């Protein structure tokens, strides 16, 4: 009994703090990644051969850029772009310092997910809306994004879960979070109970995210 | 209404240039239903897309209601398109929107007055007979119902012209029939000019005033539907016309009969339907006609009667009999093995 009490008193506050840090990193970087990734995905679709703003050069440049960033493992990216991080947020450590690489890591993936979701939209419907004299920006919003919602949501769910995984490495720049906790206490100090609790919380978090994603996607899927 | 002059469209592909349509000129008159028929790959789909510039013609001119629409600036082209409705083989509805929204969303996006939208959706859903499906999603509808929603969506824009791209090709015969009736109704009651493309001759037969037959990107025959039925000149046209007869004679029977005289198809249009010409033939010539099959085809405006007849008799005399029939205004055509 006293061991449990001791654990609760001694470790629970740190665990709570780590959960908050993880959530902060995930939510902020997700929000900004979507803001960057969504337009990027739309641009990828529109500049593809045969689409409204067909442009080989823009498409190829974006395409290669997205591929390059996506091929760098996050742990390397984290250090590789240190100067860039410092330039953007003024520091390369702490939560602020972790969010920049998290965004650089997630945004291109989200762009690709968006592109894949949007390319699935029935081109016939887009043609029908073109034939009705409807503006391209309205077609993007009211046809493409609308019809792709279920796929976009499922894609974003994957992106969030990847972000949760990536934040585990953010401890390396002193951003804290659950991964960092598990590493420092669970591994370095050999406090196995902290390791177990952390892993359990991560599992719970991923399960919740996936369920929410599935439910939302089902809600918008009407076929 | 629509005047296409020397319209050509070619596509550059990895295998070279494909001439989808070549030098097509035709006119769709105000208030008519004009059909374009052809096998797949004939270029009819590209042709109809050139009318509302979903495909820009490589050369030639497209004039809609006196206005040249090729090379219009984007903004003006959009305004022109808003007056042209279009329906498709695949219906092309939003899967994630209700029937109501499928019709209302395009209205909202084309600057229709907000207070007017609800009335228009209700009105046109009633016209297509789906007033009880406001809140259904397309996945809950049958193919025919989906096409009706698509038609209501097109009509709600209150166009003067409706383009139909194989609108019945994905539907079963009964549903096709009901959609064709709806198109006739729209044409008659709302006065909307319709240009349609199809590969099914029965669509042409039932609703088209005039028809153009396309092959290899060119119009090979064009005229009133009744004339095309009565005297198709081009072999392809004849094949389309024959496809509506559904009278298969067993080849063995045909071979057997041919030994004692020719087997011919007689077509009767207008005045010649009422004369007892076959009785006259047997009275005037030593030829005994034997009726093998017959029927009447109802076109949009006229009827055409057909008989497949075996003329039993001496070759010289049957020739004379055929000449006599043609003289009486009956169209005579030989029936060959594997013709139908």
From TrEMBL, chain A:
It comes from the Bacteria. Keywords: Cell membrane, Membrane, Transmembrane, Transmembrane helix, Transport. The keyword Membrane applies. Residues 19-213 form the ABC transmembrane type-1 domain. This is ABC transporter permease. It is found in: Cell membrane. The chain crosses the membrane at residues 26-46, 58-81, 87-107, 152-174, 194-212. Belongs to the binding-protein-dependent transport system permease family. CysTW subfamily. It is a multi-pass membrane protein. The keyword Ribonucleoprotein does not apply. InterPro entries: AA_ABC_Transporter_Permease (IPR051322), MetI-like (IPR000515), MetI-like_sf (IPR035906). GO terms for biological process: D-methionine transmembrane transport. GO terms for cellular component: plasma membrane.
From TrEMBL, chain B:
InterPro entries: AAA+_ATPase, ABC_transporter-like_ATP-bd, ABC_transporter-like_CS, ACT-like_dom_sf, MetN_ABC, MetN_ABC_transporter-like, NIL_domain, P-loop_NTPase. GO terms for molecular function: ATP binding; ATP hydrolysis activity. GO terms for cellular component: plasma membrane. Residues 2-241 form the ABC transporter domain. SMART domains: AAA, NIL. The keyword Nucleotide-binding applies. PROSITE patterns: ABC_TRANSPORTER_1 (PS00211), ABC_TRANSPORTER_2 (PS50893). It holds the Pfam family NIL. Belongs to the ABC transporter superfamily. This is ATP-binding cassette domain-containing protein.
């Amino acid at each position: 009994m006293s061991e449990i009490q001791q654990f609760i008193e001694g470790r629970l506050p740190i665990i709570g703090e780590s959960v908050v840090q993880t959530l902060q990193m995930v939510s902020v970087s997700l929000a900004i990644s979507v803001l960057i990734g969504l337009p990027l995905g739309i641009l990828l679709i529109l500049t593809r051969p045969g689409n409204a703003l067909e442009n080989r050069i823009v498409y190829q440049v974006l395409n290669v850029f997205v591929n390059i960033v996506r091929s760098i493992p996050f742990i390397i990216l984290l250090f590789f772009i240190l100067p860039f991080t410092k330039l953007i947020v003024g520091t390369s450590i702490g939560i602020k310092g972790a969010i920049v690489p998290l965004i650089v890591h997630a945004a291109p993936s989200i762009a690709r997910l968006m592109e894949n979701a949007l390319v699935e939209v029935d081109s016939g419907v887009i043609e029908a809306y073109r034939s009705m004299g409807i503006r391209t920006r309205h077609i993007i919003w009211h046809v493409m994004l609308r019809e792709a919602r279920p796929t976009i949501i499922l894609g974003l769910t994957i992106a969030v879960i990847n972000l949760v995984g990536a934040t585990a490495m953010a401890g390396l720049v002193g951003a804290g979070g659950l991964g960092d906790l598990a590493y420092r206490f669970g591994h370095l100090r050999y406090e196995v109970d902290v390791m177990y609790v952390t892993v359990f919380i991560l599992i719970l978090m991923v399960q919740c995210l996936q369920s929410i994603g599935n439910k939302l996607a089902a809600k918008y899927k009407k076929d | 209404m629509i005047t296409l002059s020397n319209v050509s469209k070619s596509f550059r592909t990895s295998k070279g240039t494909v001439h989808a349509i070549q030098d097509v000129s035709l006119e769709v008159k105000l208030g008519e239903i004009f059909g374009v028929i052809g096998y797949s790959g004939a270029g009819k789909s590209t042709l109809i897309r050139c009318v509302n510039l979903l495909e820009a013609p490589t050369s030639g001119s497209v004039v809609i209601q006196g206005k040249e629409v090729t090379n219009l600036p984007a903004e003006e082209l959009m305004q022109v398109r808003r007056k042209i409705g279009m329906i498709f083989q695949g219906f092309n509805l939003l899967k994630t929107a209700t029937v109501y929204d499928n019709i209302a969303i395009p209205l909202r996006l084309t600057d229709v007055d907000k207070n007017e939208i609800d009335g228009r959706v209700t009105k046109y859903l009633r016209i297509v007979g789906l007033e009880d499906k406001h809140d259904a999603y397309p996945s809950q509808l049958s193919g025919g119902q989906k096409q009706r929603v698509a038609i209501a969506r097109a009509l709600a824009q209150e166009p003067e012209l409706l383009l139909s791209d194989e609108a019945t090709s994905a539907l079963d015969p009964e549903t096709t029939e009901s959609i064709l009736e709806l198109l006739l109704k729209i044409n008659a009651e709302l006065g909307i000019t319709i240009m349609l493309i199809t590969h099914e001759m029965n669509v042409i037969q039932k609703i088209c005033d005039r028809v153009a037959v396309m092959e290899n990107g060119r119009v090979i025959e064009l005229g009133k539907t009744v004339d095309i039925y009565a005297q198709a000149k081009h072999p392809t046209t004849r094949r389309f016309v024959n496809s509506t007869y559904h009278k298969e004679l067993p080849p063995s029977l045909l071979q057997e009969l041919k030994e004692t005289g020719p087997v011919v198809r007689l077509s009767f249009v207008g005045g010649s339907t009422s004369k007892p010409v076959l009785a006259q033939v047997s009275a005037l010539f030593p030829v005994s006609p034997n009726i093998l099959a017959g029927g009447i085809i109802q076109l949009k405006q006229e009827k055409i009667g057909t008989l497949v007849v075996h003329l039993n008799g001496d070759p010289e005399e049957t020739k004379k009999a055929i000449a006599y029939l043609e003289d009486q205004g009956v169209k005579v055509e030989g029936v060959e093995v594997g013709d139908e």
